[in-house]
């Protein structure tokens, strides 16, 4: 039967066993389970339902200037309604000490309840502790993915967890494991790129760095989001409908979540949109059958912002809010991000249990999962952590880690006649709307939701203009903005303010550094209907190209804006993504040659607005196919240049034929042929050449980033289990078929075959 037919009935689907995805989770701690048993016996229904409610802090108080104060509503929520969780920033940017005070007040209120269950506080620490002054902000996930460096992602997670606990918050809504397969989507910059393997590998590093060992006062509980297929809506717009069969969900979108669950992730946040017309928040098959039963996930599932309410108000599934709550809780939601009217949620859910429409067992299961995480975090013993115990908060070592991550993320896409790096005595015109903006360097979820106050809150850091002036000397740098983003109105609106002045200033420059892209945004406010770079920025670029001076594009953007009309005129192109507070310093180091760029694209950079196919595609969608689509990106997935050159040789595999249970050992030699030290990402792609289900043209199956001194060679080895090469068939099971496979690493290729077909 088709997936849609199951969805339409809103029934509990039969679990399809898929051994390749089934993960045996670590057993629960018996001592903790015993404590939960005792606590559940003491809890009333009202107390249990309260644990399942999460409210936003701004509904519980107000700010005067920078100072946030709770109203009586906080005590009503925590003491009277036993609310289990609070989230979000109160508005004005808080210091770590402010946060310590806020969390302490909440936990003191919780201690006034009969059972003294601590409140679990959560923040969107998606590129560092985003809502605390003085914290260390890293590149956004898309930039971290561009490093292709597991260690850097792990270290960023360690630092984020440390600083999160310094401010007193033990839970982060991160990492984002949505696949960046639709470049129109306004949140593509929040994820690790378009490839399931890359996303899984980096997501696991974040989980381990932030969580292990859970219970340490330097670790956070993470929340995987947005489970799943949130990122590939048919419209490209936020919170809309994806059309995708279950085998595609399992092949591409589920693996990163499965890997992160296996790595120990303790909470999961749900896709705010719909899959095949069904809001994910009421999809029992996705939430319970797959995540909880098949993947053996023992943590809890939290809704996204107001999304149970959306089932009723937006999606027109139910006649009342109460019915929406019933469907969501029965589907597997354990905690509702309400985020305002907690009384309605609690009252309705209590009534649903009394009416027999939500079982007591479902309530107990949800509350057990929530209490489990609170015990694992040791919140019952230590509900508060304080800045004084975290001396490395905002330290120079942490800042260097952010700088190094930004440096390895920046991707050199074009470098005609080695125009880069520049002489440190070069005369440079710096121009463009992104040249003097901390807001555009950081993107959304920075100090505020949309990042619109980053120029104010992040003014102590260097914009591109300031960093370039520091590196090359103020006397060598001229600044003319050319195009400016509008202070008010949609993020994408810009206006020409000094085109003639920019052209005139170019006459005295040796090089033009044109900083273009996007302003900050996230979620629905970031929706767009045209991926093309703005007309005003294209006009500025063309005017500067006509001067005849070498123009270096700096692409500072959350998604790949189309540049095909101006790309031919660029002497060099650097994609910095959203590199964070130290991104401009990293860029200046690369422009000057103090750092050799090593970033690689974690996405396909499209050439045309109507040609958005990713590198994972079928033969009919491009390449040499005479009947079908055309795949001609501006830059391919995994692409990135260096100031040195690398060559590959001696690709080999330990044997030519393998049974399905065996593992291949693949080796290749990579050499730095240039006169500069550098880092290279060795990317292993494998193609299934013939299958009963049309295979993808190629898939990433391994990668390693290696450092090579000038003239140095290294042999890189990969271990590839044959079962990793299986595809998910229309029966939603894994199929590994006998036949030939092709290995591709750079310009090296070889073949092997699998001797037997298995389904598992």
Overview of the molecule:
There is one protein chain. The chain is globular. The longest helix is centred in the N-terminal third of the chain and has 18 residues, at 150-167. It is α/β, with parallel strands linked by helices and 760 residues long. The model is unreliable at 1-24 (pLDDT under 50). It has 21 helices and 32 strands. Helix 5 links the parallel strand 4 and strand 5 (120-123). Helix content is 30%, strand content 20%. Helix 2 packs across helix 14 (360-376) and helix 12 packs across helix 13 (342-354). The relative contact order is 0.10. The strands form 8 sheets. The chain has an 8-stranded parallel beta sheet. A 6-stranded mixed beta sheet has the order 14-21-20-19-15-16, sandwiched between helices.
Number of helices: 21
How many strand units? 32
The class by helix and strand makeup works out as alpha/beta
Low-confidence stretches: 1-24
Mean pLDDT: 95
Query: What portion of residues belong to β-strands?
Result: 15-25%
| Rg, Cα atoms, Å | 26 Å
Report how far the terminal alpha carbons are from each other: 20 Å
